[in-house]
Structures
1.
Amino acid sequence: MLPLINALTALLNHWFAAPIVAVMTTLGIHPAHSTHPITNPITMQLIVMALLILFFLAARISLNVEKPNSIQHTAEFIHEFVSNQAEQVIGHGYERFMPFVTTILLFVLICNFFGLLPGFETPTADPVAPLGIAILTFIYYNFHGVRVQGPLNYVKHFAGPIWWISWLMFPIEIISHLARIMSLTIRLFANMLASDLITLVAFSLIPIVVPVLGLGLHFAVSLIQAYIFMLLAMIYLAMAVTHEEEASI
Amino acid sequence: MRRLQYLFMTLSMLCLATPAFAQSAGGGSSSLVPVGAGIGMGIAAGLCGIGQGRAAGSASEAVARNPGARPAIMLFLVLGLAFIESLSLFTFVIILLKAK
């Protein structure tokens, strides 16, 4: 399967390398390899994206009240799990954010599971993928915070409850909000890279049976990290959207 | 007296160890980065272990006292573990960046 991915990456580079490099250069970003800017992790992310779109399309087309099929059962299970969590964390009005957090959960989960295939590097072990999701989350929760509370109230929310200490609180809050991007990125990226490395080290020490334990660890870490990424996105949303003051995480 | 004995034992160990230090420094090509990485990662992992152990212990106590509050406690436990763990992961990333 690895040659297939390599071939797909080469094909994508053949088609899209020139326009992508042109767009990136106008934005002031210079890719490391100007002839092949698309790497294997990006191809795998595109595959995961296509799989997710196919899954949701199939679930939508085969919706049936009388005789639900297996795809519908899976989709309902995922929806129930995510909506339980969202109701617990965000509370009233959580339905609006369901598509975003469900997509985060499934995308991160399937990207992490890609690393279980032998010979593959995990797409999320490339810092670019978690960074993209983290920046998207940052924009999303700030947008909804501004939408719900209004621009002035949202900015006032940064200053804290006590007015005479707000000159100190304001920069600290801004920095801590920006640090969320960094911490979300590094948490996912470092976890997946570490579990990849553990499998690799186990493989180089004893090539039989023992690496499977590393893969088991990778499986557990994948599940937990996808769950945590979704949970943190929900918590940031909840903190941006709710009106009353909460303890900052 | 006991303390002095320990001190002299440690000093004698250090005297014996100087050839080893001289060797690593005299080699020129070998660097101390792996040693520093090992020590730093060891400290980070150990302290992270203490923190996570305390969190998990408190969570299991809380569940034992009030089994009804299990979902909320699990939520906070997983979150807390993620935040504690990310601190040692920062160390890991710094080591990755520095130990190229």
2.
Amino acid sequence: MAKLIKDGAFVADDVWTRIDDDAIATEYSLISLDRWTHQQAELQPLASRGKLGLYLNSDQLAEMVAEQCRNFAVIAVDFPKFSDGRGYSTARLLRDQYHYAGDLRAVGDVLIDQLFFMKRVGFSSYALRDDQNEAHALAAFSSFSQPYQAAMDDQRPLFARVSR
Amino acid sequence: MYQYDEYDQQILNERVAQFKSQTERYLAGEIAEDEFLPLRLQNGIYVQRYAPMLRVAIPYGAFTAEQMRALAKVARDYDKGYAHFSTRQNLQFNWPKLEDCPQILADLAKVQMHAVQTSGNCIRNTTTDEYAGVVAEELVDPRPYCEIIRQWSTFHPEFAFLPRKFKIAVNSVPGEDRAATKVHDIGVHIIRNDAGELGYRILVGGGLGRTPIIGETIREFLPEQDLLTYLEAVIRVYNQFGRRDNKYKARIKILTKALGVQRLGELVEAEWNRIKDSAARLTSAELERVKKHFVDPAYATLDNNPAELETAKAENPAFVRWLGRNVRAHKQSGYAVVTLTLKQKGTPPGDVTAEQMEQIATLADEFSFGELRSTHQQNLVLANVEQRQLFTLWQQAKALGLATPTLGLLTDMICCPGGDFCALANAKSIPIADDLQVRFDDLDYLHDLGEIDLNISGCMNACGHHHVGNIGILGVDKKGQEFYQVSLGGNSGERGTASLGKILGPSFSREQLTGVVAKVLDLYVASRHVGESFLETYQRIGHNTFKEAVYGKAD
């Protein structure tokens, strides 16, 4: 089991579960984009109550979800391999272009040394791969105190953030 | 030169600490080999044939005497006493121990140096003209823009795991391109539009490697302050849509070909329109801040062609030859731009010993305001030398073996480390360079031949830029044997329009190769019109004429 980090700490009681397309969607299910596309009418009540989540594969880009993102309390973005960096742009665009305000969760091959970048592009929870050291993981969020770029944690680049 | 402020230094110090922790966790078995790979790559560490290689960044080729001494110390303390300047204006150490790398990087951080993003599938060291800031022909100094790109690309949170490496080059000289911008993922040409406003023409999708492609214009004019948001838009599109299923089809050049530059441009434009007025947009204050770091040094008021220079010329033909080849005009009267060539016979192109590095640092201090540049042709430049001191400098450089008067000539070869060091190579490249140095060592002959780019790569990854050599040599593997394929007619853009070389025919053994190059040169010498360069003759008489000269007439 992956260990979930949220708000700077490990949480033990995560309620969200990814379900297969043929399983019955209940509260706190993470469903596929395909399922949402085909069964939106049936799923809408769950979504409207803030009890439905979405699970995105790494090739399902932000534009494929677009404004629909606001239906979901949680959007999990999969990193099938840590070296597949598409999820960083997906997160950034969901937040920045489509104004997603729910919980954006990195899942899959989530390793310590990606956490700092993930936080910057807009992720808010992280399903850390279970072999990863917990203390190192929490420390990794503060690897750099004043990064150069604008990102989702601070929309100003360094040159606009401080007087240089 | 850009001087770090407290923020730059803090970011670098935090990087050193981060990599130290990563290496400790790796050595303790907490990080798997394949998961450590991108971490070490993004800190410049490859595992080569015999030992790790550490590639230290020299951002846009600019560094100081003090930094050179620090590099020499690393070569002495952690390596075998030498180092290698790469075709990306960087410096490589071939024999450090992985365990030592965190300490090496900590040492280098003290002189504002690092190995950040010198490898891996991320935005690499931005390169530019080695004569930036000192030649009259340039529109503006490109280095501030390179530094701005460096800061923006350093630890960019979204672009650390791109489909493949990503290289940006900047050129600011109209009609000339020493930065080979057309064979980069993004080429930035600093230009003025019809209204006289400063900005950029942006090229995309160039590259060498397995599928060499000349970049195409994606935007004719981009205003000066829009540089970073536009780069961000291009790379965001690439990060999402670039292929990830095949590393040989993962560069943006393949995406550009697949979509067409127009369609790619539309996607980029849509994204850029969304972000161009965000807080990420460059401000004039930030541009001014960075530009202030690249003001001219305190030039003395001097005349051109001083008496000291004229006297020395009159008395010393070898000095005159060096002046003619390795020294070029400076924008400031009384000054000159000097290239120290790292192309001595018997030494791999680009290699320097720790002792030479220290001596070069001394030359920089004495003759050029303590500054140096590295070039993508694997030479070093002293950019601000007083003309009245040229003779003294020449004598000292000559004694150090750094004044071979062959800049731009046949033996000023570009050559990758090849099979002697690199695990990717199909064949050795350094011995080929050596064979050619030995065969073509007659200075009169070399000068008579004139300017020829001869580039050697040990495999199709093309670190030696063979595609854009006027003569390109590529190492290939044929049933476990090393062979060499020859191509002609490539041009990096330094001599007119950039073009890719065409393969001459079946490959040759190492023993045959110098003879083949000789045949090619003989045909050129026999066929050239007065004043015609190798490339011009090649273009006039055609590829097949050369092919016949080498392989004989086809029946």
3.
Amino acid sequence: MTRNDSLLRKAFIHMGILPVLLIGAILFFALNEPRFMSSLNIFNVARQSTFLIIIAMGQMIVLLTAGLDLSVGAVVGFAGVVTALLVKPLAAAFPDFFLLPLLISVTAGIAAGMLVGLINGIGVALLKVPPFMMTLGTMTSLVGISLSMTSGLPVTRIPDDYQRILGYGEIFGLAPAMLITIILFIAIWLLLHRTTTGRYFYAVGSNIRSAALSGINTTKQLLLAYVLCSGLAAVVGVLFLARTGSAEALNGSAFGLQSVAACVIAGVSLFGGAGKVRDVVFGAIFIVILTNGMNLIRVESYVQQIVLGVILILALVADQIRTRMLAS
Amino acid sequence: MTPLLEAKGISKSFGPVKALKQMDFNLLPGEVHVLFGENGAGKSTLINVLCGALQPSTGTILRGGKEVSFSDVQHARAHGVAAMFQEFSLAPHLTVEENIFLGAEPRKGIWLQIGNRRQRVSDALKRYGFGVEPTQTVLHLTRAQQQMVEMTKALMTEPEVLILDEPTASLSQKETDAMYELIRELKAKGVGIIYITHRIKEIETIGDRVTVMRDGSFIDTVEMANTTQDRLIELMTGRQVDQLYPEIPHKPGKPVLRLEGITTADGGVTDASLTLHAGELLGIAGLVGCGKSRLIRAAFGLSDVTSGTIRVGDETIAQPNPRTMLEKGVAYISSDRRNEGLMMMRPTRENLTLSALGTEVLSTKSWIKLGFEKTMAQDLGTRLTVTPLQLEGPVFNYSGGNQQKVMIAKAIARDTSVFLFDEPTVGIDVGARVEVYRFLKELVEAGAAVLVVSSDLPEVLNLSNRLLVVRDGAIVDEMQKEEISEARALSGFFGTETAA
């Protein structure tokens, strides 16, 4: 028994609370709802997770630098609106050759998102505005901008080809969003673990003064973190549009806090300098599984919110305990 | 005579670190009892326990012969024990008056009683001879003035036991004399004073008894009347003075770093010039806060320089910043490991290689050569005798001495020829100190230019080839190896004539 205890203890110290939560949630829903383990539902969960995974990976990079990006949700909406407003007239202008309008509008949507990230980065890195206030500010104005661009109405009647290629197509048996998520995961993993730029994100977040004394361009790192984060959110905006066929300013407004939650549950430190991208993927999947499972067993939506909130707090408490165990 | 305050078998642990081990101490009425020991010896922990700021893990405290257990600082103050810390416990945005009553505000129900508060503070400040107004905001006071506020705060409670943590560290000679006078008055009234200082001269001036601590343990309590300086140092370090400092053979070569007429924007340094040669160790001494550290920080681009030139070799550096200076082979080893030096929660390996990561040795086109990195970290850690070397554990787990070694190793990870050390042995134990000194010696022997800024006077007295003295942001004296003496350095510190 004691041996088991110490084994569990070691596992907890090493991996944190997330594996427990994830396995617990899967077991619970599998036992209470047969549809949960059906291949259709599993495919559903996988597809639904993609958006949150991508955004949470971006959020993680910002959190690593001891920052925070609340504007990711607004960027999802904004990038969708920009893409939608461009793809419609362009598709009408080039009816026979859809690839060009597609490329232009998607590139523009992502670039627009990255521009927002650049503004966030300038505010945080150069003007020294606290990240919370800076991104709260851009989030608020950005929703306003998206609303005025669309006169407050959803942009609908997106060309079918757009939805077919980026939304419901299949590449190697995978939905496009899944494939893109896998590619982005590999790219970010390589960035964080194999490149100096990635290492410097951790350095800037652990101790920005030490990083500066070590000759690291901290301003550049901060700018890059926010640009990458917004860029990833914009990718989700583009994919979201392909899935729903409609662009709205408030599409994705839930992603801001959900992405922070996914990171925190995955052990990413809000004080910067610590976190693993692999865990963040599982953190995002956990949140999606929880929502999906609760939907299946018909938990009312406000009860769902309570559960999510409580679990988030529990995860933070567990992380505190873990940090203390690590120290002793 | 019953001691005013007595500590018996006090131990205190912070996680795995034992800061105090079975410490004994007693304080008699009307005496100045000096606590003496190196940084990290446990003096601060002991006074924190005695004044109620920390609770001991084991052991007992007796106040006037009765066992007490202070739950917090207020509780200790109610028992007549007050402390003045070196790191001030003042709220910067409040006024002098508000700070003095902080936590002990006279109240009626939930309402503050303003009443004659200002008058009382103003009377007290006058009585002690402190030139501070009750309405001034603490933020705008000088360090010495803040110290006066802290002192007044402690004295207003009319304590029987007064704890002073390096009270003269930032005072001028005149202010220091006034402080001694005040202490003598308190002594005459029967107040017992626990006094922390690093300056042996000061111990001789006002100390009655001295308790020496090392590595959190009690070493000895001696009467000041029948002990010597050398004996004190021996007790403090656990070895004889000549074993502590290595003999460094200096072979000064070409000048590698030249500062000419440096004045910083914050006014901390005025018109300072120095030349550092290859193959020598240049010491810079001065009181805490005299600007000696700011001078080398300016040279590394850490504060804005309004006039003067910085030259590395023959090249003038117009806009120094850490990145360019590192590229020119100049490294700065900060005195502040926690806030500036290390990434506490990151692995030792990442800390060791951080400043060299962008160089061709460790990365090609920003792809890290992980294998090389590991080998290099292993080599660096071994070379600086970081023990036990755990490359993947966070540096947070290491003792101050090992952390210091990691910082130094980080500097040699790059091709460095000029080393600017800011307080290289602050807060590390004797064993680590000896190893740091040995390493400084190796650097000089290998032809590097080493500059050591230190508030630990014996350290720079013994290691330097040349010694500069800084007072009020200016270099006031330069001594060649054979001229170096404590008396001359001290007279430089305070601006008094050398008693030649």
4.
Amino acid sequence: MIYAGIDAGSRTVKAILLDGKELRVLASGIADQGIKQADLAESLLKDILKKAGINRKDVGKIIATGYGRNAIDFADTTITEITCHACGVHHWIPQARTVVDIGGQDSKVLRLEPDGGVRDFVMNDRCAAGTGRFLEVVAAKLEVSLNDLGGMAQRAKKASAISSMCVVFAETEIIGLLASGETPENIVAGVQMSITSRITSMAGRNITDPVVFTGGVALIPGMDKALESAINHKIIISPEPQMTGALGAAILAGREGLEHVSIIG
Amino acid sequence: MNLAPKKITLTEWDERFIELQSAGINQPKYGGPLRRYLTDGDLRLEKLKFDNSPASLNLWNFLLTEEDRLHASRKEGRKIIGTMKDLGTVPVMAYSLPNVTAFYPDGAWWTPCVMEMSSGVLAVADSLGIDESFCPVRAMLGAFVTKAHFPDPDLIVCSVGATCDDFSAIAQRLNGLGYPILWWEILHRRKPERNEQSVKLPGGFECPVGQVEFVESELQRVKLAIESLAGMKIDDKRLCTGIKTANKVRQYLRELRQLTFTARFCPLPALELLIAEMLAIHFCSDQQESLDVLSGLLEEIRKRISAGVGFFDPDAVRIFWVNPVADLRVMNLLEDCGGRICGTDYLFCHALDEIPLDIHPMNALARMALADPMVGSTGDRAQRICNDIGLFGSEAVIVSRIPGASHCALEGAIIADEVRSKMRLPVLEIEVPPLADSILPSLNTRLTALVETVKERRKK
Amino acid sequence: MGLIVYSCPYVPAELIVAYGLTPSRILPESTGLNGPIDVTAGVCPYMRGFVNTACTMSGVTGIILTTVCDQMRHAKDYIEQRTAIPSFLLNVPSTWQIPSVIKLYISELKRLGNFLETMGGKSPATDYLWRVMEEYTKKREKLRALRADLNAMDYSMAIAEFNRTGQIMHALPGRIAEENKVPVALIGGPLTIQDFNLFNLIRHSGGNVVLDGTESGERTMPAPFNGRRSEKDDSLLELASCYFGHIPDAFRRPNSELYKWLKREIDCRGIKGVILVRHIWCDKWHAKVPRLREWLKIPFLDVDIDGESSAIRTAGRIQAFMETVS
């Protein structure tokens, strides 16, 4: 049986089709988020079904997760992104014990049980200071692309001191720093440090190795090193870090589907 | 008439109230339909879900008519005392006298939520320089200034010392505006050292005898001030009678909690239980009526339990909740996400313990004051939470931070660490502002994730 | 000698010295997360900086915290739960008008003595504490005299150094003429080392701090001790009178003494403006802002610092304020 997971995040929608028996990803896709979330997700699902040559009626169950999960009305059920990220990361890296997920508008730290279940979690979704949104603001202000940030941070001589209280104020501070002659490289390093210090503060002492880094921000060069240095633990970047939520949703859809089958049987 | 327990909206209450009236159910003198409060500006009621029992209707009516009672007290010439930062000690003294009404100005922190900011009390606090970086209890400052919620008290009493900085700073601001305050010192409770005589406190704590003596001497100062205001003595006999009545309230509440937390089907929703628990500290400005309201609730709960009816599936996740929320809607949300309350520490659990009757009454009150979770170490507080978790079988803990509250910023991590290591339970920290509408989806995700986590753990 | 560190001005250094230990009222250097306090949201950066500095510096035998601030009180829980460093919480009453609180403070000093004994200290002979107090009074006299010879920042640094080491700095910088500068008061909570840059910012903007009323400055110096006049004199009572009975602070209830002190100092030093520096999440100083605005008859500036912001914002505010005062 084939199962689908849809992660309706704040910045992008991700979808995965999974072979429930072999736990093999058959197709996946990603699209920018918009106002009509359900339509976007539906269209994305159609695209990946077409790509994989699969008929919609062959999909046993669909689980939606993420910030906009409740808007995905064609999904059979919803599960939070916390549970789904844990499941997705456990699938790729079964020994993972801590997951740091930094997305476009939120960030979270999960502690996992040895079987991949969630032991505990902390989450920040009220302040953009510890999220990818901060990097977007900075990149726009410095007129560089997100992919340039890693290299710039590496060239920094000293990380600038940036207030991590508020992205809006930080933007003003960046203007002030530029006016005072601070280099863009130092500013980027300062912003990276600011984001990772938010994560450190949020995680507190609850970090157990191995630590896996997931979410869209894990794709930005240099963020893994900044995080590694802030939390003082080695970081493993999850394979396809943007897709772990959708993958977890698809795996959980498979599990629920199998439970359903066994009850009927 | 359908008597099955159900959570209903304000509109559904309109119909239900007519049914109750037709059935001839007796209403107390402050009774009536809940909708009248909405008309008066309590806009939040339209977004809440309520228990449908007549006993809960009485509870809500009792709560929402407190302002009327205070104004009536003023008209009757009774002396009014505002007991601030006092979680259940001075009101016991005050209610020992027949011509005194004590109330809890700090309770105004719910006003912005209940009135959905329409009261303007927070705006007044802002204008006085007490902005949102302070605890929402700053609403009290606005309530004093606007005089729209309670009359100016004849005496304001405020504990200070091992309390919270926010409140102390806000009370000092009030003082600076010309409101005289009788400050009394509460010590940081500590364990006795060698060569110090130990005293057992309610809640299983202990402290040196010197601390009890000091706090007793401070309470004597307060007692003298109340006596001077009331024109009569609080003699031991009166005080003992007052303590016995307070103990009766506490006994009802302990039973209410025990039954609610341990019944297979939850007999009372979290929202009504939160409001009922608050009666332990302030009696909603009428101690005797508190007893009647609570006994009515207890009777209803006992009936529901014996009939095997209640709320939620038996597999609802059993949550221990730490710290009260400013936005009442969040209590509904927890239940919508699949949880039920099985244990609470709303920062005044000492006010649910029995005040000792076998010692001198002032000494007993001093011991109660020192048993307050806020005046001791966070480790003590965490230990009491762990004990209650064991007692009620909670499966997860939510530590609800009060935005701006100086103690919450630090206590949460210590409590979470202790609960994790001693009880091996998942802990979720959240922050609830006075009006949480904009973050309800985010809170929903967190609470749902916690419920999912517990349900996964059950499978193992 | 065992090193005992603290930050609160109500802890008498004399008592620690008399027990044969080394007192150090430290200035935290950073407000980072390296230490037992790893939370930031809602947490006073000074408290976090102090605790994390005290717990990570070498040679610390014990830490003294006090109840003057809610967050410092809870910091004890962190040190206890997360480190093996012995700590002591001194209960400093918030009220001050009645004799019982002075007695309480004295009983707390006795209890502090017990703690110092467990740290390797020895209960002092009857008149030894008096001698130490006498020495400290002389040193503080010298320290106070430096105000005439030093620039504002150097004088404040000298006070901080004295609090840290019990010594008066040997190499003192020369005074730079301040004739055209506007005399202002800097008041508020404690400073970190980095916060001393405020003095420079004020100076560069045309001001001169003639009163350091921060917790790190002269406001929190105890009154000079009376010498022992008879066998019956109680050294702890004298300590209590000169520390607890003398130092005005924002945490006192009521806090009328703070305003009396400030009025006296403003009048006698010809102060033209007041700058309040406070750490974010410090409720007690924060709540003073509106009251001071109402009460002061001279210009007032509120500067909030979070321990990590760049100085640019603060510099802008100070410059604008000094333009107003000038």
